[in-house]
Specification:
There is one protein chain. This protein has 401 residues and is α/β, with parallel strands linked by helices. It folds into 2 domains: 5-132, Response regulator (Rossmann fold), CATH 3.40.50; 142-387, P-loop containing nucleotide triphosphate hydrolases (Rossmann fold), CATH 3.40.50. The protein contains 17 helices and 13 strands. The protein has helices at residues 13-25, 36-46, 62-73, 90-99, 111-125, 155-168, 186-189, 199-204, 210-216, 233-245, 247-260, 274-282, 294-309, 332-339, 351-360, 364-367, 372-387, and strands at residues 5-9, 29-33, 50-54, 81-85, 103-106, 142-148, 174-179, 218-219, 225-227, 263-268, 285-290, 317-322, 345-347. The strands form 2 sheets. It has an 8-stranded mixed β-sheet, sandwiched between helices. It has a 5-stranded parallel β-sheet with strand order 2-1-3-4-5, sandwiched between helices. Strand 4 (81-85), helix 4 and strand 5 (103-106) form a beta-alpha-beta unit. Helix 10 (233-245) packs across helix 11. The longest helix has 16 residues, at 294-309. The radius of gyration is 22 Å and the shape is elongated. The relative contact order is 0.10. Mean pLDDT is 89; it is low at 128-135 and 393-401. The structure holds adenosine-5'-diphosphate and magnesium ion. Magnesium ion (MG) is lined by residues 155-156, 180, 185.
Length: 401
């Protein structure tokens, strides 16, 4: 196995020397870039296993360089980045994490501490030395939001059951985040106790890392991991407040989830607030769930306008028409022409399948995956997996037009 490649991006010659010496002694293959711009270029050219990134540099600073490296990854394989910051200033650290860094270390640092951080990060990300060959595989790291055009259209139903399909049928590591902070249903849907940890524990944890997050998610026997909503509305306020004062706290959860799972599905509440805007921002795709009725069409138009004004690319937002074959007087063509865009996916209407699952506490994708509704949601999941670069889709699956 080839030596682990570390890219050092720092303009200070003394630091370069110390780092090269220390890293080589540890058996790493070391490459050096002397400014942010060169760092971005080398990150693409040599595909390092880890990057050490200085903050203050000529041409492009460390934040901007990190952002560019992350943008070029497009949610694919993610190189661990450690920021070398000048001071233990919380703002700087948060800025680094928001830019997409995984960890930071304050200059001057002890070489042993740096090496320990590097090794910890490499073992988390699945890279590293031959001794770490058993470390976890890199994941697909996709983050998808599910947002209902109005309440009751089936957002939770589709997020939950397609997550199970991803895990069971397509063998993807999948997590589901219940971001209905005030009134999350997942505890009830999936029969989880009130004292089960939730997103409150994750967002208030100052030293959240992959191991800790693993302990805060709940494994469900249907094959997915859950990050539950707060157990009550008061605790929901804690989450909102924490995100407001430190958006990095939410970024950190999401980036740890990306690294641990192929797919992280987020079941969102309908509000458009800071918390949800950050989720939209960080998502790779936003599935807007709708039904074919006038009030939904009106809301979808508003949502599309909002997304446009946020500058999102068209294909970041994808429309999912639920209960597509229910008679509403508005057919798919009518809906598409009213919206001026196509509907990307459809899930059929099957009242009985949906309701029996609700009452039994067992999602239909787990109890009746081959029923009509199970098949329809599976087709949706298969298409989503194919577009993310997973298994190729079967020609013309039922879920997509
Ligand atoms: N495809 C479907 N066919 C029939 N009923 C459905 C379908 N999808 C959802 N439902 C039902 O609609 C209701 C609302 O679903 P839910 O997922 O809670 O919506 P939301 O999260 O958007 O509020 C539930 O009773 C659910 O069983
Ligand atoms: Mg819901």
């Amino acid at each position: 196995m080839a030596a682990t490649k570390v890219l050092v991006v720092d303009d200070d010659l003394n630091i370069q020397r110390v780092l090269v010496f220390t890293l080589k002694q540890e058996g790493f293959e070391v490459h050096v870039a002397s400014d942010g711009q060169a760092g971005v270029e080398m990150a693409t050219a040599i595909s390092p296993d880890l990057i050490l990134m200085d903050v203050a540099m000529p041409k492009l600073d460390g934040y901007a360089a990190t952002q560019q490296i992350r943008a070029a990854e497009r949610g694919g394989a993610r190189v661990p980045i450690i920021m070398l910051t000048a001071e233990a200033d919380v703002e700087q650290r948060v800025r680094g994490l928001r830019a997409g860094a995984d960890d930071d270390i304050v200059k001057p640092f002890h070489p042993l501490e740096l090496i320990a951080r590097i090794k910890a990060l490499l073992s988390r990300s699945g890279g590293g030395t031959p001794a770490k060959a058993t470390a976890e595989q890199p994941t697909m790291g996709q983050l998808y939001c599910f947002y209902g055009a109005k309440g009751g259209v089936g957002t939770t139903t589709i997020a939950l059951n397609s997550a199970i399909a991803m895990a069971r049928r397509f063998k993807r590591k999948t997590a589901l985040v219940d971001a209905n902070l005030q009134f999350g249903d997942m505890r009830v849907f999936l029969d989880q106790a009130l004292e089960t940890p939730s997103i409150v524990n994750a967002i208030t944890e100052p030293d959240l890392d992959a191991d800790l997050l693993k302990r805060l998610v709940t494994h469900h026997h249907a094959g997915i991991d859950l990050l539950l909503a707060p157990p009550n509305p008061e605790q929901a306020d804690i989450v909102v407040e924490r995100q407001r004062t430190d958006p990095g706290s939410l970024s950190r959860i999401l980036s740890l989830m990306r690294r641990a799972y192929d797919y992280t599905f987020v079941d969102m509440a309908k509000t458009i607030d800071d918390f949800n805007l950050q989720l939209f921002d960080e998502a790779d795709v936003i599935f807007v769930i709708m039904t074919a009725d006038l009030s939904c069409l009106k809301n979808v138009r508003l949502v599309l306008e909002t997304m446009d004004s946020l500058g999102y690319q068209r294909n970041k937002i994808q429309l999912v028409l639920n209960r597509s074959n229910a008679y509403t007087g508005i057919n798919v063509d009518n809906a598409e022409s009213a919206l001026g865009r196509r509907i990307d996916f459809q899930v059929i209407n099957e009242y009985r399948g949906a309701i029996s699952a609700l009452n039994s506490g067992e999602p239909f994708m787990s109890s009746r995956p081959d029923g009509p509704l199970g098949q329809s949601v599976s087709s949706f999941a298969r298409e989503v997996d194919a577009q993310a670069g997973g298994t190729p889709a079967v020609a013309q699956p039922a879920g997509r037009r």
